[in-house]
TrEMBL record:
Reactions accelerated catalytically: ATP + protein L-histidine = ADP + protein N-phospho-L-histidine
Alphabetical list of Pfam families matching this protein: HATPase_c, HisKA, PAS, PAS_9
Entry-linked InterPro entries: HATPase_C_sf (IPR036890), HATPase_dom (IPR003594), His_kinase_dom (IPR005467), HisK_dim/P_dom (IPR003661), HisK_dim/P_sf (IPR036097), PAC (IPR001610), PAS (IPR000014), PAS-assoc_C (IPR000700)
Keywords of this entry: ATP-binding, Coiled coil, Kinase, Nucleotide-binding, Phosphoprotein, Sporulation, Transferase, Two-component regulatory system
Domain named PAC: residues: 82-134, 209-259
Residues covered by the Histidine kinase domain: 398-599
Full protein name: histidine kinase
Sequence ranges assigned to domain PAS in this UniProt record: 10-79, 135-205
Coiled coil residues, start to end: 118-145
Single GO term (MF): ATP binding
Amino acid sequence: MQLLSSINNTNITLVSFLNLTSDGIAIVDLEGRVIELNHKFEEMHGWTRDEVIGMVLPMTPERDKAAVFHLYERIVRGEDVLGMECWKLRKDGTSFYADVTISPIRDEHGEVIAFVGVERDITDKKKAEEQLKESEERYRVLVETSPEPIVVYRDDVIEFVNPATVKLFGARNPSELIGRHITRFVHAEDLASLPRQLRELIETGRTSEVLNKRLLRLDGQVIYVEVKVVPIKFQGHRAAQLLFRDVTDRRIAEDALAEREREFTRVLKLSPEPIILLRDGIINFANDQGIELFGGMNEGELIGRPIFDFFCKTYHPTIVERMNQAIQTNDSMDFIELKLRRLDGNELDVELSCIYIYKHIDSPLLQIVIRDMTERKRTEEMIRRSEKLSIVGELAAGVAHEIRNPLTSLKGFLQLLQQKNTVYVDIMLIEIERINNIVNEFMSIAKPHAVQFVETDLRALIENVIYLMEPQSLLFNVQMTLHVDPDVRTIYCEPNQIKQVFMNLLKNAIESMPHGGTIEIAIRQRENDGVSIRIVDQGIGIPKEKLAKLGEPFYSLKENGTGLGLMVCHRIIETHNGTMSIQSKLKEGTVVEIEIPVK
């Protein structure tokens, strides 16, 4: 108490204001016994003033007391205020980390008579520092051991590199890179962009997307890298951390693959066959022949569309099956016959094959080869018709020979009997005349005479046929119109045969319009040095299932028809190296189109 009184007398201001500070304060004598403390000390340690007075450094762990007394000794020897950071004890045995400042209390002679200890709880700060230290250590270990190159960059200069960066640039140690200008390692073609991008990212504090750049090793070799730029603080300055990934091998492989794909595409483009490439059933390539087959003008009309858009739904399961087989067997599939629906809505007979190319990112690439079978089908049909004609011709020769003579005799005797049994004989004569007409048609098929082609004015020939057919057309209330292009040239043909074709076709057209209508006849000059004749009627039309059989012997849509008329027409047109096609829709009419070469 005598010491406390002395202190109060010596430094009454300090004691008076002990309780005004937010720090814990304890006054100890030269032996470390507590002689005074403030309310904050009580709050921090959990002791009351009466409990702690006289105790020797109760707030200091035993392991730290020697260090505290060492500070006391230094102050006694003349040093002034000293500080330390250490653990402090609470009454309940727990501890906290404190920043402690020790200063002397002197008497009127300047002698140290006591010490004032000021404590501030910095436990949270200490934990944060420890966590930061641990984080920095983890970061250091991660950076040092990272297999990816990492660079710290500031003011266009390399400030730090990890071992992976040293290896990437072919250096022996970090000193060959640190301190050097970044532009030394940037490819000439990226020199204008990369430094500028780095400065902009550092200034704005934005993390970059992945940048694809080319760098130079110390030996001058070009390397391809992906760069991610992350703005950071480095030694108190704005900087950037550059995360590199060496993609040189991948880039070389990609370039080689791209070159192979360019060669592959070139081969496909030059292929004479229509070729389509599919990924997941979607068209992503079509060569010129494929575009033309689909009725397109450019690749953009097909790219991105499902292949199934161009085939009837009934074909979809078959196409899918073939595609799956090609993928599973890693091979090509045999051709299958389908009908292709072109962009203009028309249908083509085609055959399709599916070939597995390769798998890219779990998506198989398939090559589809499509062949137009129109010409082949037409040729096969011509052969079939020719074979039928040949058979019918042989049959006709025999039948005509066997029945013509009896028919002549029957007709003669009936004419003698006509006066007595007029009605019945007339009916029999009509039927015999019909049989005779059939025999005549047989003869025209069985004994084709030598064809003499002469230069013929097609317009004049058709006008003559229209004139001959006019009486019949009037009976059916049918009008016939003729349009001839002014540039239509004369053709070489057998006029009587061509006339027979037009008379037959016009007769059929007239008879298909029992309620009247119009027949349009158009003649046009083709670019391929041929002539097109188009006959359009407004008749009842022909069902689709019957259209394919037209022209076959003894198949006719007329009640008393023989089917030989259209067969003869087909044969005459084929003899002239031409083609004849028939299209029809029920209740709309029929279109017959003939193409004949000029010579």
